[in-house]
Amino acid sequence: EMNAQAQDRLLLESDMRQGIGAGEFLLHYQPQVDIASNSIVGCEALVRWKHPTRGMLSPILFIPIAEESGLIKELGLWVMKEACSQQVYWCNQGLPQLRMAINISSRQFLSQDLISQLKQVIQQTKITPSFLELELTEGSIMEYVEENIEILEHFHQMGVLLAIDDFGTGYSSMAYLKRFPIDKLKIDQSFVKDLATDPDDAAIVKATVLLGHSLHLKVIAEGVETKEQLEYLTSIGCDEIQGYYYSKPLIAEEFVKLISNEINKSGISTKEI
Ligand code: C2E
Ligand code: CA
Ligand code: CA
User: Fold this and answer.
1) How far is CA 197 from CA 135, 151, 187, 232, 245, in A?
2) 60 in contact with ligand 1, CB cutoff 6 A
3) SS3 category, 5
4) Residues 265 and 257: beta-carbon distance below 8 Å
5) Counting ligands in written order, which one lies closest to the CA of residue 47?
6) Is 66 in the pocket of ligand 1 (CB under 6 A)?
7) What is the distance between the alpha carbons of residues 227 and 29, in angstroms, rounded to a whole number?
8) CA 67–ligand 2 middle distance (angstroms)
9) Which of 77, 92, 129, 255 is deepest in the core (most CB within 10 A)?
10) How far is the CA of 269 from the centre of ligand 2 (A)?
């Protein structure tokens, strides 16, 4: 059975190698909503693979394979280009300028090429760097800290925004946290999930918002699904939310519809927040 699994993995790897060039990957976009103004201020790009025979595949399945095989470099570059082009395209179509967040996995972050890849994508797509946000995990930046501070400084100087993804699930040294030129903490959905029923989770989320604000960082909560969760996050001063409560990740066309509806309602969603 292990053999079969390993073989299947190899198959997927070689399919992926082909699929990147063949246009089998696509991005979904999930809105990020500013709580105070109840408006969409950005989105997160989430990759999917439309496999020719296996159907739509989740990144949870194929990102680890991309990481282990080194294909993440190619796939990550495609994601960056696609997301930035989309952001610029939407602006050119007259939509309000929205922040585009993309995920950078740890192997991608550790590769030597990320800075030059990013420079290339910014030049080619002409995205305004301050509307591009990189979501990095604690795991990738807390290793080799001194080197990483330099890399992050580089991004910061380019004007790109930096967020720590899945915050609270890895380990963060407070001493380092204050030295990183980051802009935002993203509270992991595992803490948001039981907010309304688990006082410990509520306490962790509240403490994270306080920590973030004390360090002059924005705080966003992911995986927000219910009104109760939103109410609690609002009461503790969390800045932004992302989750099914507002919208699932959408294909580009659907995302544009959502934004257009919001504009038609003069920026105020009918959703009671
Ligand atoms: P993540 O960065 O933590 O992304 C959040 C995940 O939660 C997404 O899953 C999203 O669809 C899902 N989600 C959003 N709102 C809700 C909600 O209200 N409830 C629940 N239960 N889930 C929600 P997805 O799209 O399957 O992505 C899974 C992971 O794959 C991401 O986790 C990220 O680590 C990785 N990933 C996705 N796209 C990329 C990419 O382009 N590059 C890299 N390196 N990793 C990616
Ligand atoms: Ca993310
Ligand atoms: Ca997460």
Assistant:
1) 28, 40, 17, 11, 17
2) yes
3) helix
4) no
5) 1
6) no
7) 22
8) 16
9) 255
10) 24
Indicate the SS3 state at residue 272: coil
Q: What is the pLDDT of residues 32-75, one digit of tens each?
A: 999 999 999 999 999 999 999 999 999 999 999 999 999 999 99
Cβ 42 under 6 angstroms from ligand 1: no
**Which residues place a Cβ less than 5 A from the ion ligand 3?**
166, 188
Q: Which one, of 12, 11, 48, lies nearest residue 249 by Cα?
A: 48
Q: Which ligand is nearest to the CA of 66?
A: 1
- Cα separation, 61 vs 213, whole angstroms: 35
| HSE-up (13 A, CA, CB side) for residue 66 | 29
Phi, psi of 48 (to 5 degrees): -135, 160
Q: pLDDT digits over 191-240, tens only?
A: 999 999 999 999 999 999 999 999 999 999 999 999 999 999 999 999 99
Q: How far from 206 is each of 141, 191, 230, CA to CA, in Å? A: 24, 10, 13
Q: Does the CB atom of residue 222 touch ligand 1 within 6 A? A: yes
State the DSSP H helix or E strand holding residue 120, giving kind and residue range, or none if neither. helix 114-125
Bridge partners (DSSP) listed for residue 222: 242
